[in-house]
Amino acid sequence: MMEMKKQSVHGEWSSRFAFILAATGSAVGLGNIWKFPYITGENGGGAFVLVYLMCVLVIGIPIMIAESMLGRHTRQSPIGAMQQLTKEANADVHWHYLGWMGVIAGLLILSYYSVIAGWATAYVFKAFFGSFSGGDARDIKELFDTFTGSPLTLMFWHTLFMGATMWIVAQGIKDGLERAVRFLMPGLFVLLVVLVGYAMTTGAYAQGLHFLFKPDFSKITGNAVLIAMGHAFFTLSLGMGAIMVYGAYLPKNVSIAQTSILIAAADSIVALLAGLAIFPIVFANHLEPSSGPGLIFQTLPIAFGNMTGGWLIGILFFVMLVFAALTSAISVIEPAVAWLVETDRFDRKTACIWSGLTVWLLGLGTVFSFNVWADIKVFDKTFFQLLDYLTANLMLPIGGFCIAIFSGWIMLQKHSEAELAFSNPLYYRLWQNLVRYVAPVGIFLVFLHVVGVL
Ligand code: PHE
Asked: Does the predicted model carry a pTM greater than 0.85?
């Protein structure tokens, strides 16, 4: 029985392409368009990009293959998956915690993700009503500060975004997730290309290119490497079960390795395109590339407010940012929803309501960290910064480390071999060595370096 590939109780993607769209939708999100440019800016540009791409290649892709494989083999939520896998391999029951950690990381991530996605939603309307029109850097910053300074306003947009996310997830795999990504993903890509086209006309394109691709290794500290690695996990949606649960809905004849490489490549291309759209605008307007999380909310609007056709481009840009965020948000919460359904105590809709409410409540912490709690800091970080650091830089790499160890050393080899079905046994060996040695050692070394042992 165990060997049979039954469909997951939650449903299945209708094709390989649907999975690619959904997983790319999960990967491409605020991480690419909002986070990648500002952390690249904060960490010195080109060298950071190089370290990040290295992490994607030797750690990200092998772990993405591993996660999809664990998901498709078990066809369950990460919690159910880890329970089944542990039993099959006769492994220590503590491995169950890996599933739990993923679900919890998902709830934490979505809580702040939704707040930032709420900003993007609000900015669609600001763009539409011409709020950026003619504004200089100071006006736009003031607009941003007034906006983030109001807890009620942020709460409103956070609520709206969470509502939309949970509404899509409640419709199920084919009618909810898949339908959404089929519509949202192509538009996002077209718009990014248009924006890069615009960036080429700003006169500072070469400066942007230079910033993104000219490595200056003096900027690379241990912490910068950790941030690059954490971002590789975050942007590929790895280490918390999102790709695992999407893998659980994958038809059995699809090549996991091929699709994973495709998805990782698409994700990195979008991140680089986003950088190529944003940095030239930053430099052309004499702004700081290292201005932090506000970067795209404080720099791009200046261009939108002053360029010909900027009104329309501005609206479209923020619409697309919302789209990108939505296709990611639905994957962040899916592990929790799938697990609740598997307990047999909830139908999908009720599961969505409860998990959505939990995330919404947690999100208030992030809402307040931009205003009423702005001065409350632990380790010099606000609640939002702490959550971001805890999830992206710690929980996801630790989750990824455990996934690599589990799939390389613990899971029965006959299962991973059958699931990956490589045409050439050498490829299997290569993957196995990457998840057995390269990825875990890499993650471990980065951690050692950060705690100061290396
Ligand atoms: N990959 C998404 C992004 O780059 C965020 C995400 C993280 C999605 C973790 C799912 C899981 O925005």
From this structure: yes
